[in-house]
Each structure stands twice: as structure tokens, then as C-alpha cells.
Amino acid sequence: MLGFEPEQVRDVFLKYDHFHMSTIDMLDVKRTLKGDHLTRAIGRICGKGGKTKFMIENATKTRLVVAANKIHIVGSHDAIKIATDCICRLIMGSPAAKISSRLRTITARASNRF
């Protein structure tokens, strides 16, 4: 189950047809991540107390699991695409505040469409 709670994933996949699972390898995003640089990238994704990770999850309605140098994502196709973009930007060194601002803009646009 790639680090997800079995009941949580089972319920999501049984209730919804449009949910998918995706995996990002941090070394595919930035090949030079080794040692402390990899640790810092993981820290940027998780944030202090998991704040950044939860922000991405809540804004995109996805679930993330950070396991070593891989990030597993469960959600709709469009939500995974947005979450992947945010995670890639964090890996490349973008500050969490910039990602937060970006997510606010995206969610505001999405709420105006409906």
C-alpha cells in the first residue's frame, strides 16, 4: 500500500472511480540530491510539523506519503498534477510560502468555476 493506511485507500478506491495513484522519485526531479541536500528537500516537502504537506493535501484534496526519496500521491488526476507541480518546486528549492501563495490562487480559481 506504499505507506498509506489500507482502510483509507480501500475506501477511496471503492467510493470513487476517478482516483489514481502516482509516485514521484525525488532523484528524477533533481539528480544532484545527495546526503544533506536530500534531507533538506524532504524537510521542505514536509514542513515544520507536517504543515507544508498538510497544506498541499488540503488544497489539492490528495493524500501524500513521503518515504525516503519517493513521494506517493493518491487523488484525482488533476489534483495529482497540481500536487506534483508543488512538490517538484519544493524539491528544486522554492520556499513553502511561495507554494502556499500558488495553492491559494489555484483554489480560488477552482472555487470561482463552480
TrEMBL record:
InterPro entries: KH_dom_type_1_sf, KH_PNO1_2nd. It comes from the Eukaryota. Pfam families: KH_PNO1_2nd. Residues 24-107 form the PNO1 second type I KH domain. One of its GO terms (cellular component) is nucleus. One of its GO terms (molecular function) is RNA binding. Keywords: RNA-binding. This is PNO1 second type I KH domain-containing protein. It comes from Chenopodium quinoa.
